[in-house]
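Key idea: predict the complex, not the pieces.
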Amino acid sequence: MSKIKVSERYPCPGPRFKKLGPNSGEEFRAWIITELKRDNNLEIDLDGTEGYGSSFLEESFGGLIRVGIQPELVKNIKIISTEQPDLLLEIDDYINDAINELED
Amino acid sequence: MDTSGGNETILFPYVVTWSLVVVGMIITITIYHLQKANNARLQKINLHNSLVADLIKLLDELNSDSLEFWFNEEFSTNSSVLEMQGLIRRCKQTSMITNSINEIGFVEANHQLNLALRKAITDDRDIDERPINITSKRFTDINSSIIALKNHYKRHSA
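Result:
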């Protein structure tokens, strides 16, 4: 299983898009895709950062569906957050919303 | 020679004395445990109330600063990133304080409240439209998510 510790690369996660600033959700999504290509069993540890904006999370995880990553693969990602358990609910919402939009 | 009457006379005060000692010990131990439990409860209440006070202070700051960020200031790309970072950091602090309050045990966790707060404040979809109109849904969302957290996490009385 591959592991991503977000704080190691993005201690201070930024905005939605690269054009809005550094450490964006768009950049993070690219990192996730690279790791997913290496290993389908991916674990992402969200703890240890300064915090996440909703846009960063939406672009990272909802964005995975929009760029064509298989929903099963995205849902298979194991996400860990002991500091902010509410992040898991939010990410799940974004993934499901993106899947629903795709189906509409 | 019958000495049983004498033994009973000697034994009786001993029985009474030791019975009183045992009863006294039971009462002392019971009081000690009750007091200990009560102190632990008071400590939990104090910690809960102290964290609730911190939470309310943080929410009040977050309320003013997020409204100012979205509704009052002129748009500037650089400052918007920095200011948003500050808001995000405080949203995380809010989650961590509510986690600590939940762990004490007087309030049941409701992660949806933190989620609603973060969404209302840090979703940057309309960041290019700052300052946005006060009639926007975001105004209601920010205020209602903060009020919901304040209503959920209240002071606990002894």
